[in-house]
Design a protein that fits this description.
GO molecular function: acid-amino acid ligase activity; ATP binding
Pfam families: Mur_ligase_M
Distance between the termini: 45 Å
Strand order of the largest sheet: 2-3-1-4-5-6-7-8-9
Number of helices: 16
Shape: globular
Oligomer: single chain
Keywords: ATP-binding, Ligase, Nucleotide-binding
Number of strands: 15
InterPro entries: Mur-like_cat_sf, Mur_ligase_C_dom_sf, Mur_ligase_cen, MurCDEF_CellWall_CoF430Synth
Largest sheet: 9 strands, mixed
Protein name: Alanine racemase/UDP-N-acetylmuramoyl-tripeptide--D-alanyl-D-alanine ligase
Radius of gyration: 24 Å
């Protein structure tokens, strides 16, 4: 088949998928909830799906947050009998949320915040806000917008809308007003929400204060959808946080890790450092990898180091920008700062120097997969390629105990084994039919 025919076939398959997705959406009687924002949307999606799962049948689509993922979900997933569909809509550039919003046509739209992430694609906060608001604009008649009252760009999405709006935040004007926020690891996040039904106190599994925002967003949406407040509070307390999003990883007799290596936009770096500053542990270390796309020069690695060294007894930089810390020779000589090139070098260093009970933050964008440093304490990690090109985390990939160069053959072998198992089941079914 020549290239032109392959292109035509690919386009026809895509069009068929889109048609099936739109048809499935139009036939579904589920309540569709779309969630977007520059940060916190994955946690909102996971938590809201978890809360609603105690109230009805739910399909939650988290992390896979593109139009392709939405089309695949709608065209392949049987939505019959599903009460709620909770979908995370991510923006990677202009005109990336709108196609999802138009297909999703949500009953509820949640917007967490507007920050200048994906700087190369957006350039300005106004462009980010314009992209995020397309989800609110796509609400069905009588739909509900759940908006962050503390973010002027988000609350600005409410002014011209014809839909019902509720707000959350620390603002006195918020419909769901948050107060009494506290987290100091190992103490997990607690806070209160004041709303028309009174005051609810929440105990969460999160190790950092900044998780109040996605938690409050999910709580507001759930309460507006009619989930009883006692059930909401109970479900929040039992959530299993997303992997690699301030995930706590404790080694018996060894160090404690906080894995925050899925994203590292510049606006989130200080949040991670504040979490470490508040932590009530004797010894702290910070490992910083790659900072995501941002405005300005690489001097931000220097700014980050100046903050981190005031919090942690040792700071380790890893990756292509490790040399940009601006650390002085005294810090290098005393071991206050280490510059290492690969995650494996960091892992070996920590294995040699770890102290039981110390707290180690792993902060980076996903390309370095720093979570392997923690996984190596409980698993025989054999995939140590510095940058593998895979977007999903190592746990989701599942191949961190296989050398990278063997991944392709390993995956092919698993596929062949699954096909053979299906064939044997079908053969067994056929034989069973013949013997009846």
């Amino acid at each position: 088949m020549n290239a032109r025919l392959r292109k035509i076939r690919k386009d026809l398959v895509r069009r068929l998928k889109v048609y099936k997705a739109r048809r499935a959406r139009s036939k579904s009687k589920a309540t569709f909830i779309g969630i977007t924002g520059s940060s916190g949307k994955s946690t909102v999606t996971e938590l809201l799906g978890h809360i609603l799962a105690g109230h009805g049948s739910v399909h939650t689509q988290v992390l896979a947050n593109s139009i392709r993922a939405l089309v695949n979900m709608l065209s392949k997933r049987v939505l019959t009998g599903i009460d709620y569909v909770v979908f995370e809509a991510g923006a990677s550039g202009t005109d990336t949320v709108k196609p999802m919003a138009d297909m999703l046509r949500p009953h509820v739209a949640v917007v967490t915040m507007v920050r200048l992430e994906h700087f190369t694609a957006f350039r300005t906060l106004e462009n980010v806000a314009r992209e995020k608001r397309t989800l609110v604009d796509a609400l069905r008649p009588g739909g509900l917008a759940v908006l962050n009252a503390d973010d002027p760009y988000v609350i600005g999405m409410a002014s011209p809308t014809q839909h019902r709006v509720v707000t959350f935040g620390m603002s006195e004007q918020a419909d769901y007003r948050v107060s009494d926020i506290h987290a100091a690891y190992p103490d997990r996040l607690t806070f209160s929400i004041h709303w028309r039904g009174g005051v609810i106190e929440f105990r969460t599994p999160f190790p950092a204060e900044h998780f109040w925002l996605p938690t409050a967003a999910a709580v507001a949406a759930a309460l507006e959808l009619g989930v009883p407040q006692e059930k909401v509070a109970a479900r929040v307390a039992t959530l299993q946080p997303l992997a690699n999003r301030c995930e706590v990883f404790v080694v018996d007799g060894g160090p404690q890790f906080i894995l925050d290596a899925a994203k590292a936009p510049w606006h989130s770096i200080n949040l991670a450092f504040e979490m470490m500053a508040r932590a009530n542990v004797e010894r702290k270390r910070i490992v910083l990898g790659q900072i995501s796309d941002y405005a300005g020069s690489t001097r931000k690695y220097h700014y980050a180091y100046k903050t981190a060294r005031e919090i942690a007894g040792q700071v380790i930089y890893v990756g292509d920008n490790a040399h940009r810390s601006g650390a002085g020779q005294d810090d290098r000589d005393t071991g206050r700062f280490h510059e290492l090139r690969t995650p494996r070098e960091v892992s070996d260093h920590i294995k040699r120097t770890a102290v039981a009970g110390e707290l180690i933050l792993l902060k980076s964008s996903s390309n370095l997969h720093l979570e392997r440093i923690a996984l190596a304490w409980k698993h025989d990690v054999k995939c140590w390629i510095p940058v593998c090109g895979k977007r999903e985390g190592c746990v989701m990939c599942g191949l961190f105990e296989v050398p990278f160069e063997e991944h392709r053959n390993h995956v092919r072998g698993r596929r062949r084994a699954r096909r053979w198992q299906r064939f044997r089941r079908l053969l067994g079914a056929d034989h069973g039919t013949e013997t009846i």
